[in-house]
């Protein structure tokens, strides 16, 4: 326990060390309060086994005789930690440790008053972001009390919520059954999970251990050039949502990047690297969204992409930095647009993963027709004006066209006006091959590129 304690109980522990040192001539060092990240050890799992609880929210829809709804159907999950405000022996406050737990989960620390008149610190996690953090943490550092059984039932409903299937008729009966059979209502106890006690590895990498990726495309995503790649991906298919404050309650901003559902593996890989957030699914759009809302995750995002952006979306990042500086006493500098050459980092790789496409044109010849035609093309399409700031994307699209040695075109569609880049000449193809050899793609477009690569590369290599 020495060096692992995080609460005012450290004082009594140090008194024990003093007694042992004096009475038995020992030289046990007294370590300071532990301040490392929660995702580095299983301290929080033990704390939850003591003072945490899991709840499933389920209410049936009820109507009166006239058919008017008197109670709405509701399905959800809640995780809660409740702790006294002051240590009864030292009178020291538990606020610092409870604040840190709330920050880790991306929720607010509140105070509740019970019927006894006593006040307690309360942490409640029920948003998709916060329950995902709880799920990923406890799948890395498991519980060992009977709360482990409650957690496993709770996790089933969490997965329904993340998949947006918690209101499906097939799942509602199971959710009701799980709710009615957990906590004080549990009758059967299976203690097989205790076989893992004492075998948990120290300092495991949170999330990475629990996410199994079958798509080898994403295996080489790392922190090397990650910032510039993530910046390009965000500037192609991302946005930052910041809700206007109403009253005293504040909602964390959301950093979002949308992926086609076939790129779910990439979204999960990025989530594992960032270390906080969740994946929101949009089945109707055949898409999923990487969402980062906890402050610790937002800070990591800023640390990665600040100074790497090249488009008008930099204003969204500036608004996020302003929010953090105001609400969390940070002092983050807003770095300007990146003006370095595109060939020097992976920004364009991320931008192409978002807004690029590869195609092969093949025209067969019939008797008496013209020559057979085979060609390759990289196409990038981007809106002309930013819908939020009305700033133009001309500078960055013109820079890309100059880099690829091709023309910048415009096209007006029903959904608006767009810049178009089509790179297909031999010089352009050589530049593209050289660039992606240094800074590879990581979405499913990597597979399209590898097929596309077969056609131009043999010809260019002979030149």
From TrEMBL:
Which positions fall inside the Homing endonuclease LAGLIDADG domain?
44-157, 230-320, 348-453
Entry-linked SUPFAM superfamilies: Homing endonucleases
User: Which keywords fit this entry according to its UniProt record?
Assistant: Mitochondrion
Q: A Gene Ontology CC term for this entry?
A: mitochondrion
Q: Which Pfam families match?
A: LAGLIDADG_1 (PF00961)
Q: Name one GO molecular function term.
A: endonuclease activity
Know the name of this protein? Homing endonuclease LAGLIDADG domain-containing protein
What organism is this sequence from? Orbilia brochopaga
């Amino acid at each position: 326990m020495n060096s692992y304690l995080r609460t005012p109980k450290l004082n009594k522990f140090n008194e024990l060390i003093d007694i042992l040192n004096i009475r038995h001539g020992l030289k046990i060092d007294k370590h300071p309060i532990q301040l490392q990240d929660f995702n580095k050890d299983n301290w929080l799992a033990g704390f939850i086994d003591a003072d945490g609880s899991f709840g499933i929210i389920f209410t049936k829809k009820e109507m009166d005789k006239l058919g008017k709804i008197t109670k709405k159907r509701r399905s959800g999950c809640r995780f809660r930690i409740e702790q006294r405000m002051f240590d009864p022996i030292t009178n020291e406050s538990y606020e610092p440790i409870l604040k840190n737990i709330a920050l880790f989960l991306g929720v607010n620390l509140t105070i509740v008053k019970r019927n006894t008149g006593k006040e307690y610190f309360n942490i409640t996690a029920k948003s998709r972001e916060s329950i995902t953090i709880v799920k990923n943490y406890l799948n890395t550092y498991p519980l060992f009390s009977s709360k482990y059984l409650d957690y496993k039932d709770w996790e089933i409903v969490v997965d329904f919520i993340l998949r947006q299937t918690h209101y499906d008729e097939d799942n509602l009966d199971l959710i009701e059954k799980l709710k009615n059979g957990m906590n004080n209502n549990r009758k059967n106890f299976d203690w097989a999970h205790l076989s893992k006690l004492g075998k948990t590895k120290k300092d495991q990498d949170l999330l990475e251990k629990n996410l199994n990726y079958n798509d080898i495309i994403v295996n080489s995503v790392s922190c090397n050039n990650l910032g510039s790649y993530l910046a390009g991906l965000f500037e192609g298919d991302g946005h930052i949502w910041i809700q206007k404050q109403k009253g005293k309650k504040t909602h964390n901003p959301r950093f979002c990047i949308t992926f086609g559902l076939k790129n779910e593996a990439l979204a999960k890989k990025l989530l594992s690297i960032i270390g906080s957030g969740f994946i929101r699914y949009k089945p109707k759009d055949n898409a999923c969204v990487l969402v980062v809302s906890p402050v610790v995750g937002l800070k990591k995002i800023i640390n990665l992409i600040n100074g790497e952006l090249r488009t008008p979306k930099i204003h969204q990042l500036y608004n996020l930095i302003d929010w953090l500086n105001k609400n969390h006493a940070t002092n983050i500098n807003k770095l300007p647009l990146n003006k370095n050459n595109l060939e020097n980092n992976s920004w364009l790789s991320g931008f192409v993963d978002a807004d690029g496409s590869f195609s092969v044109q093949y025209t067969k010849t019939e008797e008496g027709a013209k020559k057979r035609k085979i060609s390759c093309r990289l196409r990038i399409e981007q809106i002309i004006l930013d819908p939020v700031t009305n700033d133009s994307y001309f500078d960055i699209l013109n820079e890309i066209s100059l880099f690829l040695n091709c023309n910048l075109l415009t096209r007006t569609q029903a959904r608006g006006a767009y810049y178009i880049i089509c790179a297909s000449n031999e010089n352009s193809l050589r530049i593209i091959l050289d660039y992606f050899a240094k800074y590879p793609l990581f979405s499913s477009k990597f597979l399209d590129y590898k097929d596309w690569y077969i056609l131009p590369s043999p010809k260019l290599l002979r030149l």
